[in-house]
Amino acid sequence: MEPEDVETLIEEALPESTADVFRARGEHDDDHLAAEVTSPAFEGETIVDQHQMVYDALGDAMTTDIHALELTTKTPDEE
């Protein structure tokens, strides 16, 4: 799955969010992604819950198309 496709899935599922997805650096660049997601939906949520919201947004892609995802989440106030 291409980084742009992952960005689209996240941004469509989490209104007013921005997702920057790119290939993670390292020896497994082709199948390891990294994402930085900013969303007002994360306000008041724990990091674990924020990450779960992103995983939910990606649905089945997390088990079929994405091998690994390094995830950073924050609210707009944390930018």
TrEMBL record:
Protein name, UniProt field: BolA family transcriptional regulator
Upper lineage: Archaea, Methanobacteriati, Methanobacteriota, Stenosarchaea group, Halobacteria
Domain of life where this protein originates: Archaea
Gene3D superfamilies hit by this protein: BolA-like
Alphabetized InterPro entries for the sequence: BolA, BolA-like_sf, BolA/IbaG_stress_morph_reg
Annotated organism of origin: Halarchaeum grantii
Protein family membership: Belongs to the BolA/IbaG family.
SUPFAM superfamilies: BolA-like
